[in-house]
Amino acid sequence: MGLLSVAPMMDYTDRHYRFFLRLLSRHTTLYTEMVPDTAIRFGNRHKFLRYDPCEHPVVLQLGGSDSVALAESAAIGEEYGYDAINLNCGCPSERVEHGNFGASLMTDPLHVRRIVEAMNQAVSIPVTVKHRIGIRERSGVGRESYDELKQFVSACVDGGVSHFIVHARIAILGKLNPAQNRSIPPLQYDTVYRLKQDFPELFIEINGGIRTLDEAELHLKHVDGVMIGRAACDTPFLFAEADHRIYGTQNPETAESEKAVVRALLPYLHRQMDEGIPVHHVLRHAANLFYGRPGARLFRRRLAEEIFIRRDWTTATIDEAIEELLSCIPDDAVPLRDDEQLASSFFTPPVDR
């Protein structure tokens, strides 16, 4: 996969978000939300796996712990045309822990080797692994040393993996919830850099706390790729310069301005409305698009209070409403200072799934 990617995030990186992000960057690698193997094998797999062709390169992230089930799910993902399959070995949620997958898999490197080996035998596309630099179990026992991290990576390599996405924090199970696990364990970027030095033949991608392209460019001096997580939700317009700055190509015309992104999203919104998808499933991803601009808070509030609560939109009336809404953002406004931006709280509306 490429130099820059957006992290898989539950209840966020759905197909609507991925289409939205493609209006900002053509080259950034996109990920699905984590999809449990049971959802693919026994559920409505098309609901979980469908995507727009423009989303490539796009990676399917799987959750599970059974090698046979994961191999079968990976093969189905390849049939759908995904560019790679990623195994989640980093999610610290209690629900995932009780299912013995996510970060808890790091306690058993040999089992992970068997899983990725089975997945590699089932597909011809790359199988990658996303993991933490270590783990501390509910009992307090953990695998937190650098030597244990190397053992985990080596086991995955023995199973045929050559691309690793490394969240530069340990996961603390039981005592911290997922949000706390994204902020309380300290970031240890040097550990990921060291991993690249010790495994120069591997593609090592760094993840955790990276919020700007400036930071991404600094990390790329030490590792092969950078994955951005929460900042992709909070400040999505940062990707408007990604193709030029990270890949040395032209930025998409649709990324010329925040308003251009919203207008380019409307034809897609119309198609989703024709399928019966509520408008907020699509437009919620644009809520933070104007972060740092005067009028951004008003834009978010009016989305929530005027657009999302109404259910009788037509393609004509939604276009009119969006154009009127965009008028609250001045075209030539000077961006707010950092302290003014921070004073404006982020807004992510709920999704009724």
Name the descriptors:
disordered C terminus, alpha/beta, flavin adenine dinucleotide binding, FMN, 14% strand, tRNA-dihydrouridine20a synthase activity, oxidoreductase, 2 domains, tRNA binding, 353 residues, 41% helix
**What number is the mean pLDDT?**
91
Low-confidence stretches: 337-353
CATH class bucket of the largest domain? Alpha Beta
Rg, Cα atoms, Å: 20 Å
Structural class, please? alpha/beta
In whole angstroms, the N-to-C terminal distance is 30 Å
Morphology: globular
Instruction: Predict the CATH topology of the largest domain.
Output: TIM Barrel
User: What order do the SSEs take from the amino end to the carboxyl end, as H and E?
Assistant: EHEEHHEHEHHEEHEHHEHEHHHHHHH
Q: How many helical stretches?
A: 17
Number of strands: 10
What about the largest sheet?
10 strands, mixed
The CATH level-2 architecture of the largest domain is identified as Alpha-Beta Barrel
Task: Give the percentage of residues in beta strands.
Answer: 5-15%
* Helical amount: 40-55%
What is the CATH homology-level superfamily of the largest domain? Aldolase class I
